[in-house]
Amino acid sequence: MSGNTIGRLFCVTTFGESHGPALGAVVDGCPPGLALVEQDIQADLELRRTGTSRHTSQRQEPDRVRILSGVFEGRTTGTAIGLLVENTDARSRDYDRIKDRFRPGHADYAYQQKYGFRDHRGGGRSSARITVATVAAGAIARKYLREKLGLEVAGWLSQAGPHRLDCVDLASARGNPFFCADPSKVPMLEEYLWQLRREGDSIGAKVSVRATRVPPGLGEPMFDRLDADIAYAMMGINAAKAVEIGDGVAVAAQRGSEHRDELTPSGFAANHSGGTLGGISSGQDLIVHVSFKPTSSIQVPGRTVDVAGQAAEIVTTGRHDPCVGLRAVPIVEAMLLIVLMDHFLRHRGQCADVVSPTPDITR
Amino acid sequence: MSGNTIGRLFCVTTFGESHGPALGAVVDGCPPGLALVEQDIQADLELRRTGTSRHTSQRQEPDRVRILSGVFEGRTTGTAIGLLVENTDARSRDYDRIKDRFRPGHADYAYQQKYGFRDHRGGGRSSARITVATVAAGAIARKYLREKLGLEVAGWLSQAGPHRLDCVDLASARGNPFFCADPSKVPMLEEYLWQLRREGDSIGAKVSVRATRVPPGLGEPMFDRLDADIAYAMMGINAAKAVEIGDGVAVAAQRGSEHRDELTPSGFAANHSGGTLGGISSGQDLIVHVSFKPTSSIQVPGRTVDVAGQAAEIVTTGRHDPCVGLRAVPIVEAMLLIVLMDHFLRHRGQCADVVSPTPDITR
Amino acid sequence: MSGNTIGRLFCVTTFGESHGPALGAVVDGCPPGLALVEQDIQADLELRRTGTSRHTSQRQEPDRVRILSGVFEGRTTGTAIGLLVENTDARSRDYDRIKDRFRPGHADYAYQQKYGFRDHRGGGRSSARITVATVAAGAIARKYLREKLGLEVAGWLSQAGPHRLDCVDLASARGNPFFCADPSKVPMLEEYLWQLRREGDSIGAKVSVRATRVPPGLGEPMFDRLDADIAYAMMGINAAKAVEIGDGVAVAAQRGSEHRDELTPSGFAANHSGGTLGGISSGQDLIVHVSFKPTSSIQVPGRTVDVAGQAAEIVTTGRHDPCVGLRAVPIVEAMLLIVLMDHFLRHRGQCADVVSPTPDITR
Amino acid sequence: MSGNTIGRLFCVTTFGESHGPALGAVVDGCPPGLALVEQDIQADLELRRTGTSRHTSQRQEPDRVRILSGVFEGRTTGTAIGLLVENTDARSRDYDRIKDRFRPGHADYAYQQKYGFRDHRGGGRSSARITVATVAAGAIARKYLREKLGLEVAGWLSQAGPHRLDCVDLASARGNPFFCADPSKVPMLEEYLWQLRREGDSIGAKVSVRATRVPPGLGEPMFDRLDADIAYAMMGINAAKAVEIGDGVAVAAQRGSEHRDELTPSGFAANHSGGTLGGISSGQDLIVHVSFKPTSSIQVPGRTVDVAGQAAEIVTTGRHDPCVGLRAVPIVEAMLLIVLMDHFLRHRGQCADVVSPTPDITR
Q: Is domain A5-351 given the CATH code 3.30.930.10 in the classification?
């Protein structure tokens, strides 16, 4: 329960560094009897793989996952599921130049002051590479929630720099390297991101995610609200700087008469709340937005200090994404799935006896 | 560690409902030897009290706190600190009308579906009243962090509806009922909010908070990042819909060359990051923004359903705030203080042996 | 989740000191809809009250419990239940003499070295008085488990000093001040304990407890085994020095052919295991034994050191039990109930989908 | 934080089954800067390896550990340490016969009822084999505590069936396959255990462990007492049925005047308490005893039921230990080391500011 575990009943503990021998996760608390094979997990890993388009890091990693425990004869046993992904294409030499100086916008300086030294190779534990383990764990939650509840989680790129991107066709988001849900915008993004790469600069982005068929009643009233645990999970993703539920920051300018979602026997009249009321799921679609800062690893020279605190200049080389947000969609989905899975089990533990006299107006 | 406890080493567990006999908190893990008397806590409770201006709920609660344990001869003993605040001005009759129907925008429907029934009086556990206990606990963290580190946390109202409010004079925020840090805007807010009350409507708001003298190194790399735990704490506040760190949602439109905060021997050249790098405090000021939705309890009639799921109309009476954000400042401060306190103790537990060869460029 | 909370889903957090204004507990995670009034809790508190016979401390405490939250119209709401018991008969003057010297066998010296100072009045947080809060919380678990599962937990005094005490009539244990389940031994105990008091000395004891109708399947395979959590709970009781499950220490001398409980279609052929297999409940009766050391507060003079580390002599006055074990029965029951309640909810959270092809041979 | 994680700040999460591809652990929260190589861990793994004498299971496992993360250039980084041990000598065929019937005294029936089915190969997650991961994690705690505090943990076999075994020469315990600390008794044990094997039966045992140079002040007052967490850890070891601290079960027959350890300026006059007072370490040696039941896998035929609940007979084949206690010593040591490590970090987190006016009489 130190910093590398998320969840109370569905607990995911991860380990590994960008240039270490392997990455892994222990998924503890998964219900027994779930049909699970490595391919179920591999599918989600494919979505976040690098080197699959010219718009992401060119690092080539097969990201083959091995299930080391917790599955017997194709079904989860209910005991801890060990997952392992070997690193194969680490190029640590690329990082020798930054061994003694801190990359602006990176965790380098903070790690140095926390631990007294750091694994500088590819950012070590602070690399986005480690989200491989999170995505693998999320795939297990996805399979359970889909089979048990018909619950689906799907994300898309809703903003890239100055460009707002609507969700025109959510299914299409998985068909392009940008997770763009507006097919008409894909060519523009192609050009825009390629131009950025030529300039050696990077750009921020916003990712949105929707969960459907979320049962009402998930989340705890006080601190462990569903939206609070979602905010924790999302802000824990590399480069995340803002988390919004439903209308998010826009609510600050809304009136009560505009924001409150009226109830009718056939469902809610609107969904400004994004699917939670008082921190508990209402049965409406969950809507979450996460803003990601631009990659700090760019070719543009910048000022920094070295390990001794002396002034230095830096130009980051190595293989990087011009827009980390592009690859955040599968990670945002995984984090939401893990939180929903945990709260589904928690709610069932406490409230399995409950029968509400009120019909579920959202179904 | 069900839903009413926050923290790993500095653990705050709260209980109580809006119209129950009392509210309370158990603060566990506070370092021993801290000088503490009830007045230290009372000061923060005064900041969030209702009925102190015509712009907040007219409910009159003295909010006198009693320390029931954990303090001996004026110093914390290191054992659990029990805090109690009695409710004295509950008017449950006001709520009889909503006993059988759900207030749009409120937790009513979600609670009903989670638990099968609910304490409808003043929202029960979902009322903002329960933050009294959080603020009391935060006051203890404030005193320790101030005395130990010189760390200060101060918030202000940065937006009320369409009105953006700059932080011109932070100290002045405590001098007006709006926690407005721009004295020139106070008369405008007076008129604006009074007009809203006349219309029987409400408005959203954004609250910002800054922590100074935060030591570098607080936070864990993976899930329990400092910013992740802050996001969890803030989104756990009633009516919160968005949490931003540093530049927040604006980062989605920034370039890497613009966002990354360069390092110099005399400190960081900017603070777009808001004080965390890789989820770990950098030693810069922590900057957090929280967006609050408008109060859902308004005089404007609205559609809803009753406990049987039948269509109904509702007009919320009772005593309410036209803008909950106005009173959120002390709560946002308390939440940040609790998270910082917990991470300070966690960091000290793991890393007390660390001596970094790199000077703290922020001091 | 610092040291004053027990449980994962059914979480009990307690606070209070022997001579502070009050003791309390927050019971978090209780299922909603449980009928609960203060008298349900009072009944268990009566069982552990002092001053009810000449064989226990003469401190007179009514131990009236107040439910401060979490119950509405006579039913639990599913939110945190706050419980409060005021202290009324503290005689702190009795303890002035030990303010500056450490009582041998007490926590005094350990607290001093951990915290740098201590609340010496009646032992502060280390007093057995604080188990009032634990017993109050256990009463809630008892009511739920009884109504839901027909599960019953009952304990008895199985040893007092040299005297082994059989469980002849478990029901009779609640009818005498010793919780002795062998009515024929009560007169002997009367005389034995009175003699001890005259000598100003004290004696150890062993308490045994049985839980019936425990469903099979409670407990986790690895660390959070049911027996492990029981051992944690029991060893956490003041003065406990040993915890045994089933045959306990006797197993070290048993052969496999003797110990293993054979299975038959009509149940297990024996219960050497005490109701757990691989740390998971088997459906048999749970049998637990806890050994308590003798009260260290005796009239016999002893050597000690003072706060400065100088040699000193001590004679403990104040009001004490000659045999703390006598009053441990309700506490042992409460601890077992809390652990069973927590594991029942945990198991239901993870395994509610499970249907075993194997009949429950214990029913 | 489900069942496969132990610890609050020093957190060990394990996974793996007896006949799965690998076993592993994630050690989270280890202080940074600790010199660590695989051989440091290998040394402890050698102590628990099977197949090293004719008195343990003949399964041949090299138990080579790989460090997959958390160590950089020979030092711990402060991030999660991933450990992996491959299984190489699983003979699952041996277990086909028990696929459909439950071994008496084993977890088989309890797992079946909890999860609805089970990995029957070698007991799956319930096998003692999985303690490989625990021992590996304990080795890291051992190295830190030794280097930081000079703290040493060493165990010995204190009873085997009817034979009580004194601690004559603790160092010698590592020199024989029984961890017997009385060299004169080794030949007798040789003969005794060989005879048992010939009879196809097994025997219970008791293991004792001592920790020296434990600083005073470790442990929390209420539930997370040091002795409570030790009891939890020890009872969580396969086949453990009793945990005793200090004089353990014997205290039930002791008088206060006999049990209480008097204090003198040069230390405690005795150590009946076993090193804890009020659940907090006193600075004396920690003394813990754990009783293990006899292996249930024996050649003696026994009654059982099959998966359908029908009567059946069973004779366990496969490779087993006639006395699991023989191999429990390194596991008991590892568990104690993990608990002490966790509490050392927890104590430092809360109480690093403390300076006691009282000298440490135990040094």
A: no
